[in-house]
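Working notes for the structural subgroup meeting. M.R. asked for a predicted model of this chain before we commit to crystallization trials. I am recording the input and output together here so anyone reviewing the notebook later can reproduce the run.

Input as submitted:
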Amino acid sequence: MNTPDASIEQRLALIETLFEKSDFSAVLQICNDIIELDDGHFEAHSERARANQRLGRLGDAMSDLQVLIDLRPDSPTAYLRRAALNMELGHDALAVMDLSRVVELGDGYYLSTAHFYRAIAYHNIGDKEASRRDATLLPNDFRFFVKTKDHGTRQLSRQEVLDLAS
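Returned structure, recorded in token form:
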């Protein structure tokens, strides 16, 4: 979409439709065009990371997530996304570091998800006590999806995470 008269907002508005059509190459082109105009455009880097992840270009996705962290170091979103990607790649110790940052930031919207992911990451690196500690902080009815290198994608409840930690 190299239309010079299309505003950044108009370009961004197309992205969700393109994701629905699985046209990730078009998403990348829009994001690249925006980043060429404004290399610090948070949303363009965020959407480019998502498109790259869908295309299996995980290194490129990681690079954009790092840009997001550099742009907004006190925003938990990119840390959480990078942690999830690191867990998918089997880099659980790196995930723990990012998830600890999310917990440190203290944004209530992200805390349960951070504790959930961190409990799984701790379990994967063999720290059952830390895994159990995070799992006990989850609401009783908590259920969430996690994708790990060794176990693929699955949904786990708080109780299932506690069982893993035992």
